[in-house]
Design goal:
Strand order of the largest sheet: 1-2
Distance between the termini: 118 Å
Amino acid sequence: MIRSQKKLNEVSAPQETLSSEESLIVGSKNALSRFEENRTKVFVGIGVVILVIAVFFLWQSNAAADEEAASVMLSRIVPAYQSSNWRVAIDGDMNSRIQGEPVKGLKEMVSQYGATRSGNMAKLYLANSYYFMGKLDSAQQVFESVDAGESLVKASVSAGKAAIFEEKGNKEEAAKLFKSAAEMEKANPLNADYSLSAARNFEQAGKKEEAVKLYKSILVEYPGGFFDDAAKRGLIRLQVDL
């Protein structure tokens, strides 16, 4: 049966509209209802955020404490390194005490605090100590673990690896790494030494052109003194006019 037009109009009549005040009240009630329904999820989410923040600040605090401890340990063992007492530098000296604590070696320091800045420096000292003791593979392994983010540290690592290649007889690879080390940081006071080492290894590898170029650059950049004299002697050996 077909409804009358009147009835159709009654069915399809528009709903009443709410005033702005009434809409605000209804909206607030709906929001409160949704909050009540999701109360657990909300508080769990807040708890996770608070936990993450707490862990971050705890990590910062622990990192600062580790760096301080590593710095103290390094300052106590560096004198052994500077006096070329490589074995003590590596292993420490349990018979010597500073402020009631035994002097721990670079190896233990790297194991405990290798992730800190001072611990990273300790890796360089440790690698050099192994190198000077003739333990080239151990030195290589430690050099590989150094965080070479800073240019001076990166140059030291490159030069350390170069010295190992030179000792093992791979002169050309040593030359390339020494040359690379000299180019990493213009203000590095060891650049003259790195450049001279690169030139020497190129010379010994039979790479005359590369060696001559470096020796001549040393004469220009470091006139007078030891490096200038060494470069001149290198050019004389290669029969190049000064």
